[in-house]
Design goal:
The structure is a single chain. This protein is mainly alpha-helical. The chain is 54% helix and 6% strand. It is built from 18 helices and five strands. Strands 3-4-5 form a three-stranded antiparallel β-sheet. A two-stranded antiparallel sheet has the order 1-2. Helix 7 packs antiparallel against helix 8, helix 8 runs parallel beside helix 9 and helix 10 crosses helix 18. The longest helix is centred in the middle third of the chain and has 31 residues.
Length: 456
């Protein structure tokens, strides 16, 4: 990091001094939040979220409140009234891909019939093309180390290619939503290929999408040098897309999308905000953090199956002595789910059989041990029992690794899926609300006299 700002010594400013001043005038003592009844992170004292809206799109259920007490429950994820387990089981029973029909369900409110599924797949395929020169001008000429940033910038750039970008009528927003949903997988893969060449000194491969393939099939086809994939691989990726498609209005990226939508801004700005939010390691970037944690454990634990050794290392982790020093065990715990995260359970049950005999089988066993031991680790650390379950990030990165998907695309694939939910919530916000989302912050600043520059 540069220690000075400026073009020469005479005009440079010591950045350390600026940081010290910034800390001094921005720090707020934690007791002030309690003093004024401020709920940091829009969280109640028991960790539950502060209600800020109503939605018909999704229900994320993990606990009950009985006489003010939080009662843990098995997790449920419900899209438009339909349990996610039933969606997954239905697609598996009929041997078909389900992400596209989940997109329909989220956007339009009901499960599509066979004819509607076919027509919608054709509509997605017809819009699976980027504007002329878009890849050359927006992706190849300005490569990015981070694919999420490139995706956000590219979505914003699509505004310039839209003949009617600011119209927020329902018809126009649905049209824009479908175009973004169809184009984002292309943007993701091509941004990654350019990144390979520009920063990794590796070859890049541009393969065209095929109209008769699903979104998950096309992602694998475009990503792999030989364009080859198995049906088991494509269906597992399709499963990941379904599980990540939506998670209620309160998750940070969806809330960010709704906040921007409430201002009356355009679709591209709203979806780019969701991508920017999802990039953060406290949100979608957590799956990448889990993989980094796993690699650190593998490098420092001699026997992955020795529970005592793994437990001792996890204790060092929560004490901030190893890992990234955050004191966090990534992939464990959730803001809503208590006893279980249904997404994690579904992903594990479908992926486990495919991991047997592969290079990731031992990694999977180690993560299972982390899941088993973490509640006891936190009990020893804090002296209190807390219901704690693995979340979907615990295993999604490992699944992507098994599919040969590079770490740089773990969170971008999440974004490709979650765009369905973001678009659904944008539509609901436009239809049901006419108020800008504008919470309040209490000002703590003291009165100060203005001093002329010559007297300072």
């Amino acid at each position: 990091m540069n220690e000075t700002l400026g073009t020469n010594k005479a005009s440079s400013i010591d950045i350390k001094i600026l940081c010290e001043q910034s800390r001094k005038y921005n720090y707020i003592v934690p007791s002030d939040f309690e003093k004024y009844g401020i709920k940091r992170g829009l969280r109640n004292a028991d960790g539950t979220g502060v209600p800020v809206g109503i939605t018909r799109i999704c229900n994320v259920h993990g606990y009950l409140i009985d006489e003010g007490e939080r009662i843990p429950q098995e997790g449920q994820l419900v899209y438009r009234g339909v349990d996610i387990r039933d969606i997954i089981d239905g697609c598996a029973a009929e041997g078909r891909y389900g992400f596209e029909e989940v997109v329909w369900l989220l956007l339009f409110g009901t499960l599509p019939n066979k004819e509607q599924v076919g027509l919608f797949q054709e509509l997605i395929a017809a819009n699976r093309v980027l504007p002329d020169n878009f890849v050359d001008d927006l992706i190849i000429k300005s490569p990015s180390r981070n694919i999420m940033n490139k995706m956000a910038r590219s979505v914003l750039a699509l505004y310039s290619y839209d003949e009617n970008p600011d119209d927020i009528s329902l018809e126009n927003v649905i049209r824009q939503s479908i175009e973004i949903l169809a184009r984002l997988p292309l943007i993701m893969v091509e941004a990654y290929q350019v990144k390979r060449r520009a920063y990794d000194n590796k070859s890049m491969y541009f393969h065209t999408a095929k109209a008769n393939l699903s979104i998950s099939q096309n992602i694998l086809r475009m990503l792999r040098p030989n364009k080859q994939f198995t049906e088991d691989e494509a269906r597992l990726l399709d499963l990941c897309l379904i599980l990540h498609a939506e998670h209620g209005g309160g998750n940070n990226s969806t809330f960010a999308t709704r906040v921007l939508t409430s201002t009356g801004t355009d679709t591209y700005a709203s979806i780019a905000a969701g991508i920017g939010s999802l990039k953060g390691f406290r949100h979608g970037g957590a799956n990448h953090k889990v993989q980094a944690m796993l690699e650190d454990m593998k490098a420092n634990i001699k026997n992955y199956e020795d529970e005592d050794e793994v437990f001792a290392y996890l204790m060092k982790m929560v004490n901030g002595e190893v890992g990234d020093g955050s004191g966090l065990i990534y992939g464990m715990g959730h803001a809503v789910y208590t006893l279980s995260d249904p997404r994690a359970l579904i992903l594990k049950s479908h992926a486990e059989k495919l991991m047997v005999g592969t290079e990731v089988e031992q990694d999977y066993k180690l993560l299972n041990l982390v899941e088993k031991l973490t509640p006891e680790v936190f009990f020893k650390k804090r002296g209190e029992r807390k219901v704690l379950c693995a979340n979907v990030d615990m295993y999604s990165g490992l699944v992507y690794q098994m599919l040969g998907i590079p770490p740089e695309l773990y969170t971008p694939i999440f974004a490709v899926a979650r765009t369905a939910g973001w678009c659904a919530h944008r539509i609901e916000e436009i239809i049901t609300s006419s108020k800008i989302i504008r919470p309040a912050y209490r000002a703590l600043g003291r009165s100060a006299q203005y001093i002329p520059l010559s007297e300072r």
